[in-house]
Amino acid sequence: MKIFYGAGTFQKENSSAALYKISVRVVTYFHSQNELGIILSLKIFQMAWITMFALLVFSCMVSAVSTLFLSQDNEIIFAAPVAKSDIFFMRYITTSIYTSWMMIIFSIPVFAAYGTVFKAAVFYWPLMLVTIIATAATATTFGMGLTVVLVNLFPAKRTKDIILYLSICFGIFIYLIFRLMRPEDLVNPDKYGHFIDYLSSLATPAAPYIPAAWASNLLSYYLLDRKIDLLVTALLTITPITLFFIGEWAMERWFLSGFTKSQESFGGYRMFFSRGKYRRSSLRWIFLKESKLFLRDSAEWSQLFMIAALVVVYLYNFKVLPVERSLFEEEYVTNLISFLNIGLTGFVVASLAARFVYPSIGAEGGSFYIIMSSPLSTARYILHKYLFYVVPFTILALVLLVVSNRLLNIEGPMWWISVTTHDHYLDSTGYGTGLWGNIR
Amino acid sequence: MIKDEIHNTMSHQMCGQVAADYVLAVKNLTKKFGKFTAVDNISLNVKQGEIFGFLGPNGAGKTTTIKMIAGLLQPDDGWISINGRSLANEPKHCKQDTGYIPDRPYLFEKLTGFEFLQFIASLYNLAPETFSRNTANYLKLFDLEDWRHHLIESYSHGMRQKLIISSIFMLEPPLIVVDEPMVGLDPKSGRIVKELFKSHAARGTAIFLSTHSLEIAEELCDRIGIILNGSLRTVGNLKDLQVEARLEHSDLEEIFLELTGAYELQEIIAALRSE
């Protein structure tokens, strides 16, 4: 146990050191550009703060719905003579720690890199730490309070779904923007000028009402002039405390009605008429069950957005590959990439199978006794599941291969080789279901 | 390996011998969890049309035994035969003949009640005409008709229990294994379930019923087995148990307390009454 704990700590330290080194290199690169360098690096500084703040608010809201309204111990705690303000305080502490510890640990090296590159005075370091903690506290108190209010408008499960969609969309947005900005052009001197123009034309909002912008302004001001803006410091200190008391008040005012709503079922009053008559076919009904459970559980299908973004970026990489700058003939390079892409696609499909297909074996949870006590053998049941998943995964593999081949202008034998060898994706999905293990 | 094969062959032969007489036959059944023996060398039989009550204090080994009969747990020793077939050698046939009703109704939350019944019917390869006839009947009987197209996640505990009971009765299996059938049921549904057990038993279904309710056991069961610390303490009808406990004119509660050795209970009751 101690060995694992030690290994985990060592890994975190290593990641933080690597992040610090990368950040120092990136910030030094921007900072060293004449005229625009300092403005650009501080603009990125502000974007980093706003991103961190937004991610913290979303993640805190998702956790707060669970800790405040959906926890299994709620019935015991809420039935006990404990004041709502005490419950809010208790849940606030745990939710804040759960949601912000990682963000704090990984943001410290990034913001520390600014201190190193800008050769900040000694006071920058404690100021940076206090600012990070104050901003995280502001984000979590805001998230908690907003959750208490939102659950009054929708049942908790639906609120959680809405926040989850928003978080996923936000994550996808950041991911796509970052990729579509083509960071590889930063190391391409021919395109550097365009990139600088692009970045400087980005009208980053001044955002005077966002606490993350206060944090960014406070530290930027200190980095440039070595002075502390007392008004912003006061705002950063007072805001989380004020928001905490507002959250406590909201808890007193709206918690009970929100908790009542949280016990309503998502589809409680909806009727789902199944079309088609009952027919004797366990295969058909396992297919139907899997698809219905998947489509009716938004936590499952909302992840498809993330997969769509991954697929788009995967294919976009082929579009922007600088094959024309290669030392070898273009046709030779594209054919080689197409060949390697067979393995890469297999890797993508296997990863997705590990995420979706492998957990599907244990998805029945407590209901697995239904399958175990039925005359359907476990091997056959897993085979049915495998058949259910193999079709969409094969289609996905084919789409990845055909589109990437099209983007690389691949024709002839290599096209056929890459498309016809897709049967090993059946293996990938099979490994995901554990089918081969079972058959062997 | 060879030992297992010999054991299986012997089990198969023994199963065949009792096939003609009993729907469920259990012989020398043992289950250990580490060093703890949950079920210790239990043997019992249930014949066609019989309701067999399985009683015992908490943690005596009732649910473990039931899970082994339903094919959810593998015994460490002994064998189980259903309709003359060994559960170890022919699990598919045995499970086809057994309907299992658990005490905690875990179901597929995102399916509707009706979809759940269709799913169960497909697993047991139920004929469409039997499905149509039985589902309409049981959904009406348990007041679930209006809820059949709603998601199970919106059902109460009792509704889930009624759905799961319907799903098993709908299959018309020769053997029904029930763990605590009345948990969460309202009095009306409880009454219906009792009548269903009686009528199915009258039509030849064997019912193996585990319960804590001595009233139900007394009312329904033809024979009763009392399990204590993993071992079968006694088996017989109410008269046999009265003789065994030397309490000729007592009810099942007195007999149960006597046979399970709850002597200290008398002192506790006396102490509580004196307060």
| Major sheet size, sense and barrel closure of chain A | none
Label the structural class of chain B.
alpha/beta
Number of strands of chain B: 10
Task: Give the spatial strand order of the biggest sheet of chain B.
Answer: 6-7-8-3-9-10
Output the number of helix runs of chain A: 18
Order of helix and strand elements from N to C terminus of chain B: HEEEHEEHEHHHEHEHEEHHH
Keywords:
heterodimer, A: 440 residues, mainly alpha, 18 helices, flat, disordered C terminus, B: 275 residues, alpha/beta, 4-stranded antiparallel β-sheet, 11 helices, 44% helix, 22% strand
Summary of the model, kept short:
The complex is a heterodimer of chains A (440) and B (275). Chain A contains 18 helices and no strands.
Q: How do the helices and strands line up, and which of them pair or pack?
A:
The complex is a heterodimer of chains A (440) and B (275).
Chain A: H1 2-31, H2 37-70, H3 74-79, H4 84-117, H5 124-153, H6 156-180, H7 189-201, H8 211-225, H9 230-262, H10 282-296, H11 298-301, H12 303-319, H13 330-361, H14 368-372, H15 378-407, H16 413-420, H17 423-433, H18 435-439
Chain B: H1 2-19, E1 24-33, E2 36-46, E3 51-55, H2 62-69, E4 77-82, E5 85-86, H3 91-96, E6 98-101, H4 113-123, H5 128-141, H6 157-169, E7 175-179, H7 187-202, E8 206-210, H8 214-220, E9 223-228, E10 231-236, H9 238-245, H10 252-259, H11 264-274
Parallel strand pairs in B: 3-8, 3-9, 6-7, 7-8
Antiparallel strand pairs in B: 1-2, 1-4, 4-5, 9-10
Tell me about this structure.
The complex is a heterodimer of chains A (440) and B (275). Chain A is built from 18 helices and no strands. Chain A has 440 residues and is mainly alpha-helical. Residues 1-5 and 436-440 of chain A have low confidence and may be disordered. Chain B has 275 residues and is of the alpha/beta class. Chain B contains 11 helices and 10 strands. The longest helix of chain B has 18 residues, at 2-19. Chain B starts with a helix and ends with a helix. The chains are: A mainly alpha (440), B alpha/beta (275). At the A-B interface, helix 10 and helix 14 of A face helix 3, helix 4 and helix 5 of B.
